[in-house]
Amino acid sequence: MSAYVISEVDDVRDPAEFEVYRSLAAKAIAHYGGRYLIRGGAANLIEGGPPPKNIIVVEFPRMERLREWYASPEYAEALNGRQTAFDRRLIFVDGVPLA
Question: Cα(75)–Cα(29) distance, rounded to whole angstroms?
């Protein structure tokens, strides 16, 4: 069953460091079998609030692989500058089982 990372980037404080993070994270995601489904496109708030700023959704083949990616040395390199570069909410969620 697929698993998903949903990232809501709230505030980019250091655009240069954010680009370093994006590049390193993308390489690590690909290495662990993930693929971007949404990467910061326009988001239209229909109900609720507050409005989202920047949404990223990444699909992994299964939750175990997603967790391996998050704990990996490749992704740790990306995380080094993350806290100074931007704020976010990060959510892991299982997909729907195939029928």
Answer: 8
Query: How far apart, in whole angstroms, are the C-alpha atoms of residue 77 and residue 31?
Result: 14
DSSP state of 53: S
User: Is residue 67 a contact partner of residue 4, using CB atoms and an 8 Å limit?
Assistant: no
pLDDT tens digits, one per residue of 6-19:
999 988 999 999 99
Helix, strand or coil, per DSSP, at residue 33: coil
Cis amide prior to 52 (ω within 30 degrees): no
Torsion, Cα 89 92 94 95, to 10 degrees, reads: 50
The pTM of this model reads 0.90
45: pLDDT strictly greater than 90: no
The residues, any chain, with a CB within 8 Å of residue 49's CB and separated by 6 or more, are none
